[in-house]
Amino acid sequence: MTRKLSRREAIVGAATALGAVAVAKATAQEGAAASAPQATVTVPTDPTKLQGLPTSALGARSPFVKPSRGPTGETVGSSLTPLQDLTGPITPSDLHFERHHAGIPVIDPAKHQLMIHGLVDRPLVLSVDELKRFPQVTRTYFIECSGNGRHAFRSPQPDLTAQRVAGMLSTSEWTGVPLATLFREAGAKPEASWFLAEGGDACLMTRSVPMPKAWDDALVVWAQNGEPLRPAQGYPLRLLLPGWEGNINVKWLRRLELGTRPWMTRWETAKYTDPMPDRTARRFSFENDAKSVITSPSYPAQLRARGWHPVQGLAWSGRGRITRVEVSTDNGRSWADAELMGPALPKAAVRFQHMLEWKGGEHVLLSRATDESGFTQPTRSALIAARGLGTDYHFNQIVGWKVARDGRVTFHGET
Amino acid sequence: MTRGTRMLPLLVAAAVACDEGASGEREPNTMAVAVAYAPPATYRAGHFGLGRAPSRAQLAAWDSDIGPEGLELPAGRGTARDGAAIYATQCAACHGVEGQGLHPVYPALIGRDPRGEDFAFSADATVPRTIGNYWSHATTLYDYIRRAMPLYTPGSLSADETYAVTAFLLAANRVIPDTTVLDAAALRAVQMPARDRFVPDDRSPTRH
């Protein structure tokens, strides 16, 4: 070569000379808008004989790692955390599940305001900067859509992935100000028993919340996993009601009104209510019950080697800490306590592990979580008996995976 | 109670006895975790002097919610006939000409399927839940249409138009006669068929 090579050409050329294999261009995942364009990456046969890539403004995943939330692509839509691809209890922010009712608004934080009014001594409007001048807390909590697991409950087909079974569950470290601090600042009147939370999206999402939650552990958060909230998670402000159904954690929070009774908004009457066999429907079912799901192995994985395999998954409860996770490898005939991998924080997911020595036999792997309030996951048939197959939210039935003799793993939902 | 004298949430420091090993041997893993907010005494008074009072205009613009008593309902009126025309141009594209919806994104609005009349939704998920058989408050309908609809031009309907669409949907669901002139007083008086169907959450460790 006679002309001077660009650095990129040099890298690629050298790599080729060393017998490199080009990795297929990291294709845009479903929902291409979310994926930054990625260059072709070359993999040298011996990376120790070649300068690596330079530093960059933003980190990127290895081209070998291609998670996707599998978005529906609608503004009134959802996307799911790929639980089978993750480790540990924390969900990477860009893989947090989504459920929006009017898309993701673009909000200028310099213009965003939070209004607190109604039954208060001193109605307040706070800018985001002012909000950040209150004493802050950082806490780890899960958020789970109360519709999580509906498909696995109603139609437990063998080709469901962990993502489809339970992917509307994500856990983050959140930073914000306790709602109690803000309500004291505004001077909440003692007769206030409920408050309305309103989001700044195109549906002005509204939910009613009992005041005791504000004095307990509710937060107004602006940060997630060490940086500002993702737009899909409420940037610049989100109400966080630990352990309560996802929808009530109002994103793009702009208004809190204190009153004496619930407002009976569309999202707490026509939606997010649970029809019951006695021809009623439960309303204001806030807590997400104790729940667990094995994420590895899961469909469409296949065990290929005999010997030891970690059976891992996540357990969580909206009523406090997970105190116990049991795993069965024989479809519930016997159960063993799984190891909790790290501290079980209140209202946060904890990962569990059970070692399986696979000798080529058939197994049905199940997990069953118990929380500190005494709730234990029911079987699917017990949940159907209690609420009926047509019930619509708050599914926490035991689920699992069938391992066939050839190692193929399929969903097992009929428990 | 006034600001500054309210009881503070208590600090709950809990010892967590965590996990058993996979082999069954107990390995105590004890840690203290603060689970509720406990402000230090220095700012326990709870007053930081941040923010300002909302202007009358901002309050009026933002405080748009209509509660179940309908006290906040604005002046205005509309009929089912007016509402039918608005529905056809503003709503039918998503919710269907007959209000049948477009599953699963755009819900059914209209319909009194006989299977839904005795509220047997727990037994059969395929019975559409509509305004006529599932909504508990007519005020919710006004509030929701006014705040969130039409999907691509939310908040664009006037009070009269919102009353008219509300009247159309209530009449199409056989909740009110299609001759009703719906205004604040008439809407407050509407009794929804499903109003008594809702019960508080009664889950417990032995009751799912």
Describe this structure in words.
The complex is a heterodimer of chains A (415) and B (208). Chain A has helices spanning 7-17, 128-131, 150-154, 162-166, 179-186, 211-216, 266-269, 380-387; strands spanning 21-22, 42-43, 78-79, 98-99, 113-118, 124-127, 137-144, 169-178, 194-199, 206-210, 219-224, 227-228, 238-240, 253-259, 274-275, 281-283, 291-296, 307-316, 322-328, 336-337, 339-340, 350-358, 363-371, 400-403, 409-412. Chain A is an alpha+beta fold and 415 residues long. The longest helix of chain A has 11 residues, at 7-17. Residues 5-36 of chain A have low confidence and may be disordered. Chain A has 3 domains: 1-65, no CATH class; 98-279, Sulfite Oxidase, Chain A, domain 2; 291-412, Immunoglobulin-like (Sandwich). The termini of chain A are far apart. Chain B is mainly alpha-helical and 208 residues long. Chain B has 8 helices and 5 strands. Chain B is globular and about 55 Å long. β16 (281-283) of chain A pairs parallel with β5 of chain B, so a sheet runs across the interface.
Question: Quick recap of the structure?
Answer:
The complex is a heterodimer of chains A (415) and B (208). Chain A has 415 residues and is of the alpha+beta class.
**Strand ordering within the main sheet of chain A:** 6-5-14-9-10
Report the principal-axis shape of chain A. Answer: globular
Under CATH at level 1, the class of the domain at 65-189 in chain B stands as: Mainly Alpha
CATH topology of the domain at 65-189 in chain B: Cytochrome Bc1 Complex, Chain D, domain 2
Radius of gyration of chain A: 24 Å
| CATH class categorisation of the largest domain in chain A | Alpha Beta
Structural class of chain B: mainly alpha
Report on the biggest sheet of chain B. 2 strands, antiparallel
User: Which strand order spans the largest sheet of chain B, edge to edge or round the barrel?
Assistant: 1-2
Continuous helix count of chain A: 8
Radius of gyration of chain B: 25 Å
Largest interface: A-B, 94 and 77 residues
Query: What is the straight-line distance between the termini of chain B?
Result: 38 Å
CATH superfamily of the domain at 65-189 in chain B: Cytochrome c-like domain
Helix content of chain A: 10-25%
